[in-house]
Amino acid sequence: MMDEVRKPRLTEVVAMKALLDEASAAGQVLPRQLPELYENVRDFHVYADDSGVGGLVALHIDMVDLAEVRSLVVRPDLRGRGIGQRLVEAVLAEASDLHIARVYAFTRMPAFFNTLGFAVVDRAELPYKVYKDCQRCPLYPNCDEIAVARWLDAPKTAEGMEVPT
Ligand SMILES: CC(C)(COP(=O)(O)OP(=O)(O)OC[C@H]1O[C@@H](n2cnc3c(N)ncnc32)[C@H](O)[C@@H]1OP(=O)(O)O)[C@@H](O)C(=O)NCCC(=O)NCCS
Q1: Is 120 buried (19+), middle (13-18) or exposed (0-12) by CB count in 10 A?
Q2: Nearest atom in ligand 1 to 86's CA
Q3: Looking only at Cα atoms, what is the longest distance across the chain?
Q4: Which residues line ligand 1 (CB under 6 A)?
Q5: What is the CA radius of gyration of the chain?
Q6: Contact residues for 88 (Cβ-Cβ < 8 A; gap 6+)
Q7: Edge-to-edge strand ranges of the sheet holding 146-151
Q8: pLDDT at position 165
Q9: Which residues, other chains included, contact 19 with Cβ-Cβ below 8 Å and sequence gap of 6+?
Q10: What distance in angstroms lies between residue 23's CA and the mean position of ligand 1's atoms?
Q11: Which of 8, 57, 74, 81 could bridge across to 87 with cysteines, CB 3.0–4.6 Å?
Q12: What is the full per-residue pLDDT of the chain (165 aa) written as tens digits?
């Protein structure tokens, strides 16, 4: 069976949205609209096999030294086979290529991220900018997600440095 983790094809965006819709209906990820997915399609990696798109993940850049791992979903029948791990590893490789110093995620599965080198952090340690999505989250303000983060082997910028706006 052919299977791979790679950048998505534009013809796969509708299938990506279907996976996100199912997971967001279960409260596991934030919902994403189709235009938003096309605009941000270069954030994504997909897992694809003979049955099509079976998983996805996004790396969303926040600022000069920080990016978020988000929209991580593996199709329910494919879970527990290491696909989620492969997706996050692809994101980490991409972040490394981009010289991003640190990646983070908000999750209810810190154990999954622990196996990938992420540590639980106090969310107050992350810049305010990372909460921009919270206002449209159905859980706001009673969020039960845990912040996890991991440093990468990339040049570090000064603490708290931001690109001027
Ligand atoms: C989270 C998710 C992507 C994991 O995908 P997956 O393909 O099942 O994960 P993997 O098989 O790669 O698991 C990797 C490791 O994490 C562990 N793991 C997987 N799910 C876990 C969980 N819910 N809690 C703790 N550990 C977990 C596995 O045991 C494995 O560790 P091991 O290699 O030591 O055995 C998948 O469960 C999913 O799509 N969930 C619904 C969407 C969601 O919650 N996404 C948001 C996450 S921030």
Answers
A1: middle
A2: 12
A3: 48
A4: 23, 28-29, 72-74, 79-85, 105, 107, 109, 111-112, 115
A5: 15
A6: 57, 69, 72, 113, 116
A7: 3-6, 44-49, 52-63, 66-74, 102-107, 146-151, 119-120
A8: 42
A9: 53, 55, 56, 73, 75
A10: 13
A11: 57
A12: 899 999 999 999 999 999 999 999 998 999 999 999 999 999 999 999 999 999 999 999 999 999 999 999 999 999 999 999 999 999 999 999 999 999 999 999 999 999 999 999 998 888 877 777 777 777 777 788 999 999 998 555 555 545 444
Q: What is the pTM of this model?
A: 0.89
Q: What is the pLDDT of residue 144?
A: 87
- Nearest Cα residue to atom 21 of ligand 1: 112
Residues 8/41, Cβ–Cβ less than 8 Å: yes
Q: 115-121: long-range contacts at Cβ-Cβ below 8 A with a sequence spacing of 24 or more?
A: 115/85, 116/85, 116/88, 116/89, 116/92, 116/150, 117/92, 117/150, 118/148, 118/149, 118/150, 119/148, 119/149, 119/150, 120/146, 120/147, 120/148, 121/147, 121/148, 121/149
Set out the domains of the chain in order of their start, with CATH numbers.
3-151 (3.40.630.30)
Determine the Cα–Cα distance for residues 14 and 22; give it in Å rounded to an integer: 13
